[in-house]
């Protein structure tokens, strides 16, 4: 474990050294974003540099950046205004939901994607359903799933619906694009069909799978607000956003949004880190 | 063992291949016959599109045949198998495997125990001159080294015949000459039957015991030229140049025929 941390640390140091300019650009872009936010908020409030302008009634819709930052830290130490849960509880519940939805999507989308990518028959059978369900936004499933399946599994299934398709599509693409030369080579070396699948198709598809996983995790977080819209057992960051908006605590609402952004960055970052380790181990990078 | 004579490694009789693609059919091979002796080095040479690679792929079992018979050591060929090793122009190495693990691929598929695999691959790494590169990945290797891995990998299963599809076609001229010498060294050490497809006359004369010149499409054997020169052959020697001239003139005639057909078709 300490090895992993050291290598993570090394790669961060290396990134800073090699990408100094790009890092500065990223930081500058963030500073600009905060400045624009501050100016917009100041304008609504009628504060400096827009002094003298009477405050807009809806100024509370856009609190100052530091107010949101304060609310963010507060949310971890004070229970939310509509239940007795802390932000930590909401994060935990949402994380569990994302993990369950992801696990479900992974164990179903990977085999189906491989099957559709390697067998034209399987693709002919499964494609109509895949194409029919793919464009339906996960949000559309919210009423029926939460009512029919309940507040434990309903939200999980909605997250699952969001993660399933990106994983399915990228695994299918990967399985389809396996270099036929490698399959020929494996055949002349005596590989049977199962071995071609496990020793050629599977490793070839792995980078595609990892792309699908990263996109899927991001979409999973995008679905969490919808998934928890009608309620979820144990709360959740999405539910937190709905609840705080209902009682007009917009500072806390934004804090919830920031939390989702950070969680998404964190989880996708972990997936990206694992991906790099995987490629290094497989020797393709 | 039907139709197998002693010392015959590959026997191809009346081989035909028709490709159909969306209603159009193209006859790639028609009545191709060839008998390859055990341990012989054969080069297949012909105008492009004459079906030389198709012959190789059918012998490898990667392609079906429309008519005819293909026997390898008396056994009818109907699918790919580890008794025929193949080396590809574009190498076809597994990018996620090290040199050693690429070479061991066939042994792994055949269920050979790890320590035996290791022994065989070490021997082959020595043979093809890849020592100290065994833990490298294909992307770290030059073209010539990649093909050394390709050859070692094909030899690992100890196949009776080695099928080589323009193996040095994507290498630069210097590397190509070096690899030709290396291949002869390996061939002399292992004494495999080699069926080698090339479009380089020079390469064929340098390598082959016999050069099989194919006709333009539909491909069959036009002429077999015996290269009775001692190895190592000197590319600048009078004998080499004379054989080269003979092969070239045969080939030129086929090329002209192919072109005339092409023009007639238009």
Please describe what this structure looks like.
The complex is a heterodimer of chains A (285) and B (266). Chain A is mostly helical and 285 residues long. Chain A has helices at 2-18, 20-45, 65-77, 87-118, 120-133, 142-149, 153-176, 180-188, 193-227, 237-246, 250-282. Chain A folds into 2 domains: 1-62, no CATH class; 64-282, MetI-like (MetI-like fold), CATH 1.10.3720.10. By secondary structure, chain B is α/β, with parallel strands linked by helices. In chain B, the strands form 2 sheets. In chain B, strands 6-7-8-3-9-10 form a 6-stranded mixed beta sheet, sandwiched between helices. In chain B, strands 2-1-4-5 form a 4-stranded antiparallel beta sheet, with helices on one face. In chain B, helix 4 (114-127) crosses helix 5 and helix 7 (201-207) crosses helix 8 (238-265). Chain A binds chain B through residues 179, 181-182, 184-192, 195, 199-200, 203, 282-284, and chain B through 60-62, 80-82, 84-86, 88, 90, 92-98, 105-106, 108-110, 137, 139, 153-154, 156-157, 163.
Features of this protein?
heterodimer; A: 285 residues; mainly alpha; MetI-like fold; 2 domains; 11 helices; 78% helix; globular; B: 266 residues; alpha/beta; 6-stranded mixed sheet; 4-stranded antiparallel sheet; 8 helices; 37% helix
**Strand content of the residues of chain B, in percent?**
15-25%
Portion of residues in beta strands of chain A equals under 5%
Report the order of strands and helices of chain B.
EEEHEEEHHHHEHEHEEH
Give the largest interface pair and sizes.
A-B, 19 and 30 residues
Number of helices of chain B: 8
| CATH homolog superfamily of the largest domain in chain A | MetI-like
Assign a percent range to the helix content of chain A. Answer: over 70%
What is the number of E strands of chain B?
Answer: 10
């Amino acid at each position: 474990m300490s090895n992993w941390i050291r290598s993570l640390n090394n790669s961060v140091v290396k990134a800073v050294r090699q990408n100094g300019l790009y890092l500065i650009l990223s930081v500058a872009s963030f500073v600009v974003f905060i400045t624009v936010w501050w100016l917009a908020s100041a304008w609504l409030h009628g504060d400096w540099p827009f002094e003298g302008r009477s405050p807009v009634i809806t100024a509370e819709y856009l609190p100052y950046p530091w107010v949101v930052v304060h609310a963010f830290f507060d949310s971890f130490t004070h229970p939310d205004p509509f239940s007795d849960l802390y932000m930590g509880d909401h994060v935990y519940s949402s994380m569990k939901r994302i993990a369950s939805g992801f696990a479900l999507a992974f164990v179903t989308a990977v085999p189906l994607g491989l099957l559709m990518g390697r067998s034209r028959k399987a693709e002919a059978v499964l494609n109509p359903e895949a194409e029919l369900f793919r464009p339906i936004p996960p949000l559309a499933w919210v009423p029926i799933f939460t009512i029919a399946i309940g507040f434990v599994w309903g939200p999980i299934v909605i997250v699952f619906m969001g993660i399933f398709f990106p994983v399915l599509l990228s695994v299918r693409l990967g399985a389809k694009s396996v270099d036929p030369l490698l399959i020929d080579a494996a055949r002349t070396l005596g590989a049977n069909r199962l071995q071609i699948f496990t020793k050629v198709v599977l490793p070839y598809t792995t980078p595609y799978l990892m792309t699908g996983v990263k996109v899927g995790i991001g979409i999973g977080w995008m679905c969490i607000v919808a998934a928890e819209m009608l309620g979820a057992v144990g709360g959740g960051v999405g539910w937190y956003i709905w609840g705080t908006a209902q009682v007009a605590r917009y500072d806390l609402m934004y804090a919830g949004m920031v939390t989702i952004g950070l969680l998404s960055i964190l989880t996708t970052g972990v997936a990206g880190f694992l991906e790099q380790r995987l490629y290094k181990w497989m020797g393709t990078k | 063992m039907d139709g197998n004579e002693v010392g015959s490694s590959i026997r191809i009789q009346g081989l035909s291949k028709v490709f159909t693609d969306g209603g159009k059919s193209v006859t790639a091979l028609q009545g191709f016959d060839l008998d390859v002796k055990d341990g012989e080095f054969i080069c297949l040479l012909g105008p492009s599109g004459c079906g030389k690679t198709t012959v190789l792929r059918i012998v490898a079992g990667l392609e079906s045949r429309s008519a005819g018979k293909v026997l390898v050591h008396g056994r009818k060929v109907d699918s790919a198998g580890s008794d025929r090793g193949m080396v590809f122009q574009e190498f076809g190495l597994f990018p996620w495997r090290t040199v050693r693990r690429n070479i061991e691929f066939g042994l792994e598929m055949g269920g050979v125990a790890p320590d035996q695999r290791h022994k065989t691959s070490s021997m082959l790494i020595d043979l093809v001159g890849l020592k100290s590169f065994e833990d490298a990945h294909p992307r770290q290797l030059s073209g010539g080294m990649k093909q050394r891995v390709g050859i070692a990998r094909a030899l690992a299963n100890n196949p009776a015949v080695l099928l080589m599809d323009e193996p040095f076609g994507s290498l630069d001229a210097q590397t190509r000459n070096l690899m030709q010498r290396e291949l002869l060294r390996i061939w002399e050490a292992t004494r495999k039957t080699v069926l080698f497809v090339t479009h380089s006359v020079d390469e064929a004369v340098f390598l082959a015991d016999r050069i099989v010149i194919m006709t333009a499409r539909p491909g069959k054997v036009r002429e077999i030229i015996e290269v009775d020169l001692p190895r190592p052959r000197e590319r600048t020697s009078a004998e080499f140049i004379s054989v080269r001239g003979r092969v070239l003139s045969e080939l030129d005639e086929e090329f002209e025929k192919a072109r005339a057909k092409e023009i007639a078709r238009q």
